[in-house]
Amino acid sequence: MGMIGGSLDAFIGSVHRRGAALDGEIELVCGAFSSNPEKSKETGKALYLPEDRVYGSFEEMIRREKELPEGERMDFVSIVTPNHMHFPPAKMALENGFHVVLDKPITLNRAEAEELKAIWERTNLVFCLTHNYTAYPMVKEARHLIKSGAIGKVRKVIVEYPQGWLSQLVESSGTNKQAAWRTDPSKSGAAGGVGDIGTHAENLAEYITGLKITELLADLTIFVEGRQLDDDANMLLHFENGAKGILHNSQICNGEENDLNIRVYGELGGLKWRQMEPNTLVWTNQEKGSRIIRTGVNAESRAAQVHTRQPAGHPEGYVETFANLYRNFAFAVRAKEAGQEPDPDFDFPGVEAGVRGMAFIDTVLKSNSNGAVWTKFE
Amino acid sequence: MGMIGGSLDAFIGSVHRRGAALDGEIELVCGAFSSNPEKSKETGKALYLPEDRVYGSFEEMIRREKELPEGERMDFVSIVTPNHMHFPPAKMALENGFHVVLDKPITLNRAEAEELKAIWERTNLVFCLTHNYTAYPMVKEARHLIKSGAIGKVRKVIVEYPQGWLSQLVESSGTNKQAAWRTDPSKSGAAGGVGDIGTHAENLAEYITGLKITELLADLTIFVEGRQLDDDANMLLHFENGAKGILHNSQICNGEENDLNIRVYGELGGLKWRQMEPNTLVWTNQEKGSRIIRTGVNAESRAAQVHTRQPAGHPEGYVETFANLYRNFAFAVRAKEAGQEPDPDFDFPGVEAGVRGMAFIDTVLKSNSNGAVWTKFE
Amino acid sequence: MGMIGGSLDAFIGSVHRRGAALDGEIELVCGAFSSNPEKSKETGKALYLPEDRVYGSFEEMIRREKELPEGERMDFVSIVTPNHMHFPPAKMALENGFHVVLDKPITLNRAEAEELKAIWERTNLVFCLTHNYTAYPMVKEARHLIKSGAIGKVRKVIVEYPQGWLSQLVESSGTNKQAAWRTDPSKSGAAGGVGDIGTHAENLAEYITGLKITELLADLTIFVEGRQLDDDANMLLHFENGAKGILHNSQICNGEENDLNIRVYGELGGLKWRQMEPNTLVWTNQEKGSRIIRTGVNAESRAAQVHTRQPAGHPEGYVETFANLYRNFAFAVRAKEAGQEPDPDFDFPGVEAGVRGMAFIDTVLKSNSNGAVWTKFE
Amino acid sequence: MGMIGGSLDAFIGSVHRRGAALDGEIELVCGAFSSNPEKSKETGKALYLPEDRVYGSFEEMIRREKELPEGERMDFVSIVTPNHMHFPPAKMALENGFHVVLDKPITLNRAEAEELKAIWERTNLVFCLTHNYTAYPMVKEARHLIKSGAIGKVRKVIVEYPQGWLSQLVESSGTNKQAAWRTDPSKSGAAGGVGDIGTHAENLAEYITGLKITELLADLTIFVEGRQLDDDANMLLHFENGAKGILHNSQICNGEENDLNIRVYGELGGLKWRQMEPNTLVWTNQEKGSRIIRTGVNAESRAAQVHTRQPAGHPEGYVETFANLYRNFAFAVRAKEAGQEPDPDFDFPGVEAGVRGMAFIDTVLKSNSNGAVWTKFE
Predict the structure, then answer these.
(1) Are B166 and B245 in a shared domain?
(2) Domain range spanning residue B61?
(3) Which chain B residues have a beta carbon less than 8 Å from that of C163?
(4) Residue limits of the GFO/IDH/MocA-like oxidoreductase domain (chains A, B, C, D) (predicted)?
(5) Which pLDDT does position A129 carry in this prediction?
(6) Position A219 pLDDT exceeds 90
């Protein structure tokens, strides 16, 4: 694996590295960790990479690695840069024959996403978009239960993603790098919280239910004076099967950490899951009451089981979701190289999910700018 | 107290009787428990009332009680009939000089509500509408904290009221009296779940925040085939101070019991409360983390304290909310009779809250019937 | 009902009155609320009793009420005095033909308890000891599930009763009447926390499991300097069927409210219940995971159902446990008067439970004073 | 790092490997994964090790690695064998100059532990015993708060470790390797559950409080017929400062996963922590109520902060505790090599904790075999 972005002071880069390392299936062999060559070098050194595999730019890395003999050169790139720097390295990597792991959202805007999709379709390469929250075992189990009819036809979906870390204008502090780029349209894209976390909520809802949102209505707000992008979004949803829904994401819910959660109600029961207690899935039923499904205890699906590493009660967490994605990606690469189909229980989001996310952002922005009106997905 | 409605097989009548009895301040002295005189008599007997104080109709009760000497006759009426039978007895009671406790919603429609308000304003009588959920001590404390600036200016309000008991067409079973009248427009009014529980959510949100909703957008659904009234509602809200909100109520959230809950986020913190764990209020803050406020432990407001009966950890529940309303109503009657102002910490919802609820229902229905569009309160 | 003790500033008296009033089956007709006649009068007045039914002493009340014609005189006495004043009025009431409701523990010591039992056995009267915590619907359900074999043979019982209200020497403040008498051996008996709350834990464990403790080992402590009675107790238990257990009660668990809770593990599963969330019972199983049983939702036993007043999700609490006891007691009195057997699903603790509690206290004190050694029940 | 034990079908070996890999500070370079050379080879292959670094026995590994040039040979051994195979490789590694990471309990019995301690004291090597549960950030914070006086003098400690996985005689199934060796005295030592999990509870209690247990009383049981070692233990504790405590561990709590938890009450407040929700620490106080301390939110100690990898609400779990130990161990090795003192906030359990654990086991067994009597630590 060669990493693009992810210098020492970045949040998501180290998460990717830990996720990739966890199962011992993937080795970091090179990196272009920063557009600042000095910073890249420093990071490479801290990661015990040989100096000659630490590059000053992603272009250099892709070019030079390609020249190395097979077996020695990196197998794939992992791109963990801010959003505006997703498309260029992803495009170049694919065009040079490297598989790609890319942090979400896929690109800065929908046009880039469509272009990237077109490029990818011309290759025979594996592409993983790290919508990691769908890699929790209990999310797999929820998806399985709905698919198997356990709660009947889905009627109502409530998906929430409240955070509080942007309750104040922290991006102007000069010390919060995360906040700075995420609230800067030139780096983050036209959406703020909707792009950063709203897309996770959308991805989670569609993944678990297996249903597409067909139209939505979005009411976006910038609550913190001086901010440039939305920090709060309230949406109503219509799903393809007639189900109705609510999605809200916020970064001004003062005191909330990272409380992505979903509730799905069907004709025969319901399911509830919270990211912050990820090993618990609650299966509700009007007459029978609630059953607790727990990681490592009583998940019935193979999909949940193969994403579980520890025995019951040994908490699995956030880093394991990245490990799940990287491991499944590695398996898919091997299957590809062996000319085999990948195992569907070891799935991960790809280009389609990325384009879907950009369509979601587009539809949300369009709805909101037209006065928070009902807007169909195009 | 004389009761109108509330025969033995009704749910809410016995709740009112228990609430009224709890503190020993109020005695049931007569009743017209059913439009069926036989049933009324039977109920009166089961409640140990003398035969001559059990009436065959509310008209008879009000007329005959009025003829009794003061001190002997009932002091007030408690009306616990289905919605369509709220207005006639309330009107007659007020016009005959009796204070009134009335189950919510105030009337079948807004016109009746406005008329009742006009009648009440001509009297010098006390009127209580039993929006009981705002009578929990921790709701009082939440209101106090927001008023005192503890969470700063309110930005976002999420209020939910999911139930699951109408997940199937139980109203056609012939055995569920509750379900039958609540889903029948002639008895319940033009709204189903919105009138039954949505109004509680609206009342809770406005009471706690002290803010009025100025416009809303409502997406109503009848999920269960054969049902006549809405069983699910998703709404977006705008508040007078610029805060945004979400309100959803549902009776098809299969497996949910009675999960009224609210989250309010301000510039400086947030508050979270759930009716099903009513003695806990969570005060969130981005830097300091969460503090748990508990009934009988650390509520700082007198309003919370005077609505607390037991020491910490001796759970207070639903029946105490009715007891709080009845006790506060009794205190207000006495204050009125003594020519004093009522104590504001012993408050309860009145005609205004009732009219507000009808305005809410009207606005919701109008928004929905126009295609789920933004609609201002009139 | 005539009440002995329970003046306005007492905690438990008002709980009893509310419990008795809740269902409209019982009326307070007289009282001797304090050994101070002035205070008794004042309390009676506040409770709207006629002056001539408020007495200056329990002796006077029992004597004078007995002289009243049947139908007019009180049916039973409710005794809510401090422990040292349990035996005299209970004895006199029974000897004068009045049924008795008595707050726990039954008497000041075991000798009194045995004597009271003997007196009661000579009468044909109904006796209720208000170990109220076993009157929760989910406790009834737990007992039913164990009896029905749902968790197999019981192996391990953990019952806890932590409180924190005596973390400091509050009894010397002069303002905490509760604390003052409860830590005074002349009023409370030879045990402090063990008598006050340890007996509730013992009663709960034996009631739910249907098993008797046969021997125990108790390590008692007085943590707060200047206190005269135990404020902390740790015990190991042996049950008659070979099950092992732990019981601990404390009043110095700083920050704990009233957290009585129990866990019972059998060969096939387990049950967990907490008084502070009384409407939830968790049924654990190694392979199937946990099921949540909730008041008003999915309790299978009639015993749980007949102790449930509200629909699901309308929290029932502490006051309902007293209402359950008083209602069941009233039913038993009527059955007795009608010459019928009482319905076993409407049960309540009686003299036997009281004597058992005193045996428990004795055994604990004996074990502790011998150096915390294993001690058999006598 | 060279690993001893931990073939593919072992539980704890893979946990160690993942923990060691997580931060990219440690590389697995060789292993003797099984006493069965075939199995060792297979494991090495699956872990992408070169064939010549996969050994048939630990003796061979230590001998051969020692012969490699510095910089190439392993820096330390990680020993993850069953208990009876802890002492021999640990001894040999130390005697040949290798630092050691060793799974707990340190050895099969106390004599071995003392001998190992003596050997270690003669070296200048770093030794880590993987009592991993004390490596959670919230455990560090709890220790810090107690040390800083936040809850005053400690009075009561309740530490529990219930599991349910040995509720049936699974060791005889032939398919549960874990269960088989853990219930076999020749491999596990004289204690069953007490050695496996009781020692974790003891370690946690003493680490958090900073207090030593001075005497205890233990009541051990074998509930499952046919089992050779204790599967349930109930203990009372006395601490050096006069605090009292309860410790119980069980593997027959049917339906419990891995619910290690602790409550500590002092004069001024209390602390509560559960391993299964490891990122939450509750700080209780009688007047102020409870405060929630969360990983990544409001921990005040540097010790907690340096053991936190993700921002708030991105759950950290079990694998991170091993990563913490391995990283801290690696830092200590480097400090040692640089002749520096290790940073006390990056601490980990060592030989002392191991000897302490064996003393605990010895005292427990002695108490139990004498009839569950009070027994002092020797």
Answers:
(1) yes
(2) 2-125
(3) 313
(4) 140-271
(5) 98
(6) yes
